[in-house]
Amino acid sequence: MKELALNGDNRMTVKEVAQALGISDETVRANGKQLYPELFVNGKTTYLNEGQVTAIKLQIEKHHNLQSTLEVIPKTDLEKEMLILQAMQFQAERINILQSKLIELQPKAESFDALMKTETDMSITAAAKHFSLHPKAELFPYLRDNGFLTSKDLPTQRSLDLDIMSLREVKCADNCTRSQTVIKAKQLDKFRKIIIQKLEVVK
Length: 203
Hints:
By secondary structure, the protein is mainly alpha-helical. The protein has helices spanning 14-21, 25-35, 50-71, 77-116, 124-130, 135-145, 157-162, 188-202, and strands at 12-13, 47-48, 121-123, 166-171, 177-184. The chain has a 3-stranded antiparallel sheet with strand order 3-5-4. β4 and β5 (177-184) form a beta hairpin. The longest helix is centred in the middle third of the chain and has 40 residues, at 77-116.
């Protein structure tokens, strides 16, 4: 709506208000009659003061906003079907996004579940079984051949630098301690990415 140019108590006719607002005389008259029916008498020129013009302007704007809202509401069966199809398409896109995230997070969840079944770490043998690999036939040979384990099945410096395996001191029955290779909680997902994924490619 255009701004009106009213100064003090100057009055305007219906035609002047319509021109100032950029709308028809009929629109001004119809809304004005709703607010001030006593002012609109047939055959007489109606004069409106600043307060009355402002009230009529607000009435027209309110009606205009309501009409704009009603225009977006589907009226025909075809429009309703189009709206439903758009909603279904949006929902399908959201489902695809969530499924992609689920696939991405699944390996991490499996690694976490496996770790929860142990205390704070797991052995190479346990890791092989978790990832459906044969410990002696698949995982240990791969780790040795690719420089991740020594001939004594201890982590090489490379493995320690990559932070995918650690050493744990184990007390034996004869009260002696020996070193054992383990995978800690924080290392399990990295072990999967660096070792298991590459091993599955070359299988």
